[in-house]
Amino acid sequence: MPTLDFKxxxxxxxxxxxxxxxxxxxxxxxxxxxxxxxxxxxDNLIIRGDNLxxxxxxxxxxAGNSSGFIVLASGCSxxxxxxx
Length: 84
Hints:
Mean pLDDT: 77
Structural class: mainly alpha
Shape: elongated
Low-confidence stretches: none
Largest sheet: none
Order of helices and strands: HH
Number of helices: 2
Radius of gyration: 17 Å
């Protein structure tokens, strides 16, 4: 099987261990739960911030769950040619 080797590969493999865990907190002012329900972390989430911090915060909730769907969207500007 082919492998990909590059300078600093060992650092990349262990970098997530140096990222501190941050707890997700529901902002009830910005939440829109179903009528009669309380806001929770089990609904659809929009998390603003660093992707690595967000993924590490989601790990305790979704570890071992293959039915989750995560979309990472960068905050970059549109392409110069007008594309997205």
